[in-house]
Amino acid sequence: MSLLDKIRPLFSGVGLLLFFFVSLALPTVVCANNNINIFVVLSKNTQPYQQFKTQFQQTLYSSPLPKIKFHLIDTDIAASISALYESGVHPDYIVTAGTQAAHQLISTNVSAPTIFSLIPASSYQNNIQHSPYCKTKTHCSAIYLDQPINRQFRLIKKGLPDLRHLGIILGPTSLTMKASILQAAKKYKLDVHIAEAEKDDNLIVLSDKLGKISDALLAIPDPDIYNRKTAKGLLLSSYKNNTPLIAYSKGFVHAGALFSIYSTPEQIAKQTGMMLMRLMSSSENILPASEPPNLYTIDINPAVLRSVRGKINFNDAMLDKR
CA dist 286 to 94, 282, 283, Å? Predict the structure, then answer.
């Protein structure tokens, strides 16, 4: 037998092994060449949500991930999703922006890993994560709209070092934050006065009572407390009592709040995109735990700031983009 005849079976075995391993790898290659369908569900077709959408897409386009196809939904969410399914388009991942989009989505029968973004922590923790939609816990996560209470207290203490008494109105949605508020107050040595508002309470009366015993009022996101109908009256109450309001949006500052600590749609969109990239890069396909915003902005109303009693410490370093 020739030497070639002796080694040919060895090469044949190696060839079979190579074929076996290549065959195992083929499905991954095929998947990588297909589109990854991402449903982006917006609460409204307005500028903040368009800013979110644009930054979210840019974040994912900059990644070395497989080809992505975005499907934008901003009206009649249930019907739009149904139409996509009927056309043969099923989501690999879903991202919502805003509370309205989140609540409409969970009423559908869609099943895909979902990130609920631009949403108050209390809305997600009290309602959405306990809904049938999120019965598979690893398929739901969130990027919260509101700032961690420790961050708020730290910045309040740093910017207004003479402030001692802080008034807060909590409603049905935000009442779950009471324990963490009291814990942060102890940590930062602030005396916190909390008014718990029930459904039919007069919010102006509660604000006036807090204003008489507080150096400032802190607005905590709660749709039953701060909304289009109540915001003006609560701001007027803070003026009347010379008790500035510390809020959570740019609009509040323009309307007369002393300052706001908030995250822009672009900042939250970037973080949402990064979370989805981590999920898509993971072999387990399990969503990370929900996160507070890691980037934030501080806006100040100079006119209101001039009326504040005591030391003020809003320097440039504090106001830089975090």
Answer: 14, 8, 8
